[in-house]
Amino acid sequence: QVQFVESGGGTVQPGGSLRLSCQVSGLTLSNFIMSWHRQAPGKEREWVAWISNDGRNMKYADSVKDRFTISRDNDKNQIFLQLDRLKAEDTAVYYCHAHGSTWDWGQGTQVTVSA
After folding, report:
1. Residue 25: which residues within 8 A CB-CB, separation 6 or more?
2. What is the distance of C-alpha 16 from the center of its chain?
3. Beta bridge partners of 73
4. DSSP letters spanning the chain
5. CB 48 within 8 A of CB 68
6. pLDDT in tens, 33-69
7. What is the C-alpha separation between 47 and 60, in angstroms, rounded?
8. pLDDT digit string, tens, across residues 69-81
9. 80 and 99 Cβ atoms separated by less than 8 Å
């Protein structure tokens, strides 16, 4: 059974930073492009970033480019998202997933940016 367990969220002030982690089980991580997504209150879930199987290539949504950094550790089956220069509009529940897959989503981790 494939599982995604996100952690590391919290409440920070605008301009602050957080590092999100995702522990993946039930698959060989190096076989998959991985991605982060987020869902803000009252909005659809949106893609944030993806990272290639080997970690060499990344792509970001325009809204987070140059502020967020995705990374991975295939040996530990973990995905990370470094969030810097956070804005109020980054407030959302953040999820990791195998890009394009149909496995169930995890519970996500809440990020709240508020003064």
Report:
1. 1, 2, 3, 5, 77
2. 17
3. 78
4. --EEEEE--EEE-TT--EEEEEEEESS-GGGS-EEEEEE-TTS--EEEEEE-TTSS-EEE-TTTTTTEEEEEEGGGTEEEEEE-S--GGG-EEEEEEETT--SPP---EEEEE--
5. yes
6. 999 999 999 999 999 999 999 999 999 999 999 999 9
7. 8
8. 999 999 999 999 9
9. no
Structure tokens at 12: 């920070």
pLDDT score, position 72: 98
- Tokens matching residue 26: 């039930």
The letter for the amino acid at 1 is Q
**CA 92, 34, 113: angle at the middle one, nearest 5?**
20
| Cα gap 94→61, rounded to integer Å | 14
Nearest 5°: CA angle at 82, between 67 and 15? 50
